[in-house]
Write a structure and sequence with these properties.
Shape: globular
Strand order of the largest sheet: 3-2-1-4-5-6
Largest sheet: 6 strands, parallel
Helix content: 40-55%
Number of helices: 23
Strand content: 5-15%
Number of strands: 14
Length: 571
Amino acid sequence: MRIGLLTESGYPDVGGDTGLWCDRLVRGLAQHEFDVYALSRGRSRRDDGRVPLPPQVGRVRTAPPWTAEGDGVTHGRRARRRFTECYGELVEALGGGPGAAPGQAAETRPAHQADRFGSALYGLAELARDEGGLVGALRSDTALRTLERACRAPGAPRTAREARVADLLTVTAHLEQALRPLSLDWYGDDGLGAADLCHATAGGAAALPGLLARHLCGVPLLVTEYGVQLRSHYLALGPDDAAPAVRALLAAFHGLLAAEVYRRAALLTPGNAHARRWQERCGADRARIRTVHPGMDASCFSEADESPDRAEPHTLGWVGRVEPGKDLVSLLHAFAEVRKEDPRARLRIVGTPVGAEGEAYLGHCRVLAAQLFPDEAEGVHAVGDNPVSFEEIGGPEAPTLPDAYAGSAVVVLSSVVEGFPNTLVEAMFSGRATVSTDVGAVVEVIGGTGLVVPPRNPRALAEACVALLRDPERRERLGAAARARALELFTVEQNIAAFNGIYLEIVSRHPVRRVALDETGDPLPFAAPAETHVPVHWTGPTARESTREAPGRPPGDPVRATSGAASEGAL
């Protein structure tokens, strides 16, 4: 089958957030064809180049919204009226009507609000397809005045009514950037319309092209979320970053967009229970959710598991990206308590700072470590030594990532914010006992194979570490159980097998109806299997959608067959 893979700031660019996972997925499913459609959110990642692509990737189409330009089309009177109606309905939906609060939860949001938002969104997409000129219209004074009328209308929420001109300009600019995928030329028979399935590797803007492909071409949509985009937007719009009116209106927009994506997707595949709860809260149907854990390469960590004697018996290890959310300050204070119980204990912090904020945080941690643990020498002629060491992967103490785990008896995770804890899974692959804070998907990942304590609680963290340092047999038992659990749930092979089954399930339940033509223009027989024409409910409500004609495409709209068209339809 042909898969339209939708990415944002990731694959196939080097260093993207989802690059490694997407590359493993594409290479592991060599029996399928992939077309990659990438939204780039920054210039630097495009300049870094691309990863080598396997032969099953047919083509790559990119759209850099940060340089989007208008197509030079100026709307006439009828097109302007059509834009004003659709855009006005969209921005009015952000307020939710009289008495509603922007950004309220999906389960308390009126159903008509989501319907109005979806209708307006698809109306703008159809306008872009029929007339063009949407980018210019979204930047126009008409868009700004329409937003202002919606905010000043009777019954609008107080937060929206208090929006200043500067706030309206900020919201208009954000909406224009977020809606740029509506103007892309990806939705014809030479683009996403030719796919059997659209797979979005994230929610939000990355899934918007798949949402439009479903509406305009009837292509089913699969959405995978290992990090919740809506949560990221909420965190990015802090009190110090935007005015209350801007935060409320943009939160409402991203909440409605997430709800529309979750409502229209054939299946949702969150990477953990934390992401699944967010999707359900935004209105996703539980029957259409399949949890698929991220797949990680376990082979490079086998050496650490096979050589348990490499671990220093009194050493705690921390591995990861250095940033405030990892809460190394609490870890250092907890280690001070550990040293009171076990003066031989040592702490290895192996990581790389993230950006300028990470550099500053690492410097702060170094200063704190020097204050808590001044260098002490055993005698007057000995050199003082600090029990806390700061290292980086590639250094003499940790040449490789497996070496960073192999040298520690216990691996600690002290985060206050965490999505899917990759470093915890790596420690489990290495057969190491772990002590973790109860954040994100930690409990789901660790199961009963490690100790879990509350976040921001140095005393509890210290007590758990001391308990494992004093009991080697318990460490060995937990490490073996952790490795067995990781090999069962979190390998690349498990991830690829799960998605292959999901692809086949979606295509069997939501086949794309096309009338294929041969080279002479005559209908091509047996281009689609006979069972796709059986008008019955196969497995419940989802099967009903598979018997409908594709939205946005007239019945019998022909698609000229290319080489291999018959075999693609049969899949």
